[in-house]
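Entry type: protein chain
Record version: 2
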Amino acid sequence: MTPHAHDAAASGKATFSLLIPFLGAISAIGPLSNDLYVPSLALVSTGLGIGGGAAQLTMSSLLIGFSLGCLLYGPLSDRYGRKPILCLGLAFYTVAAMLAALSADLTQLVAARALLGFGASSGMVLSRAIILDRWTGEEASRAISWVSIFTFATPVVAPLIGGYVATFGHWPAVFWLQAGTGALFLAVTLAMRGRAQAGATTVLASLRAYGAIVTDGQALGYMLCTGLAFIGVVAFVSNSSFVFTERFGLAPYQYGYSFSFVMLGASLGAYMNSRFVTQLGISRMLGIGATLLAIGGTLALVTARLGLMMLLSACLIYVFGVGFVFANAVARTMSRFPQNRGAASALFGVNQFLIGGVVAALLSLVSEASAVPLAATMAFAGLGCALVWWGWLGRVPVARG
């Protein structure tokens, strides 16, 4: 290796170490906006004089805004560059959080939460696009894995912070915290040197790229893989509290430990993928992840009536596999569309949140205090993901990376 090459490699490694934590932080803004807020739901109901069911509208409005934002930020960033559109999204997020804090009634808060989701989606969509602008193949998967560690850890850490903020008994406080976070990230973004240049295509051409992506067989297959994997995660997040407290009799704090134990498995899976993907390749790691999903989902169904620890172990195996599937499927798909990485990233975001909303809504209809619906959902998702990979995508010849 020449001195020049050595310097370039060292510079690339430094960029990786400095950039990734920031991308992980902005990628986690979406789940952070939700998980910080949940502990304050009761305060919102009391403060605005509304019922708990009405307060849930503020949760769904965030998802709607998030999905719409995903569809716009991707094509806009393909045309005008990542940095200006990320600044726009973060500014939107900061203002929306302030509007939420100042809301005087439910209608205003629902609208502000929708705008909050719209702004938050910029972080998730553009963090992936920025990664693919700089790295390809296994290195891109490795970087996405590191970013995913932040995202997967958010449901563990954010409710603790949100719970502490809620102890002050003032529900707007959580939104002032989010506004401060958005302003901080905006300031950091403005201070960073942007490498990605504006694209040559028009916004309309970038929007048309959605058609090319959704009609690409392999892209659909990878999105199906991640969508199925995400079904099991949503099932656990939305239904585990009911199952573990009602069926297994856990106290709230015990459930909190159980939830953290499982969700940290996803971060561990993402970390393991970052360690080994450059050695084993994307395809092999995807196959391992899909197999782990199938094993975890099947074990969950088999052990649903046998005991808490066995079910928890099965769930841990499942989310551990998600850490492999997600990063590799995203990297492989976005690499197929080098001129429209923002649009491809946006479709992954919409795919996740639409599936999440549907699954959460269906599981909310279950009134039986049983682990079977949760376990059956995870089994369906895990086996489905493995079938898509081993029966379809894994058979398609693809160059390593």
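Comment: The chain has 16 helices and no strands.
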